[in-house]
Amino acid sequence: MFNATKKILIQLLLLVLPITSAIAANSVSSADTFIIDVRTEAEWNAGHLEGAILIPHDRIETGISKVVVDKKAAIYLYCRTGRRTALAVGFLKKSGYQNLSNLETLENASRVLGRRIVQ
Questions:
Q1: Does the first or last residue of the chain, that is N or C, have fewer Cβ atoms within 10 Å of its Cβ?
Q2: Which three-class secondary structure state does DSSP give residue 48?
């Protein structure tokens, strides 16, 4: 029940933030796993990974702490080429996040995580 409540609270919080999210009911395998898309909103709208959360790389500093509180949580990041993801991973490491995976591209993230690309 706590995990379901936590998911609902995160979804409600994201509605008020200037960050677009798409957290489906079964979007993350556990409350300690997050898939972060660091591309632009336009790129997101063209297609994104099922269950991902959009936090553009230039807003990762303020956006991540509102979504991922536990710095030991598994965070998977992707963008178009891997460049923005590398920037985001660098910042997150400096901020104390420990379990980071740079999946580089949307297509690679889809393959590695077994998630489909949705619009």
A1: N
A2: strand
CB 49 within 8 A of CB 71: no
The mean pLDDT of 105-114, rounded to a whole number, is 97
Q: Is 49 helix (H, G, I), strand (E, B) or coil?
A: strand
- Please identify which residue in the block is written with the tokens 């990041």: 77
CB 86 within 8 A of CB 93: no
Q: Which fold has domain 2-118?
A: Oxidized Rhodanese; domain 1 (3.40.250)
Residue 1 CA to residue 100 CA, distance in Å, equals 27
pLDDT of residue 9 exceeding 90: no
Question: Shortest CA distance to 89 belongs to which of 78, 79, 99, 100?
Answer: 100
**Is residue 32 classed exposed, middle or buried when 0-12, 13-18 and 19+ CB atoms within 10 A define those classes?**
middle
Map out the domains of the chain as residue ranges: 2-118
- Spatial CA neighbour of 101 closest among 81, 80, 86: 86
Percent of the chain whose pLDDT exceeds 70 = 74
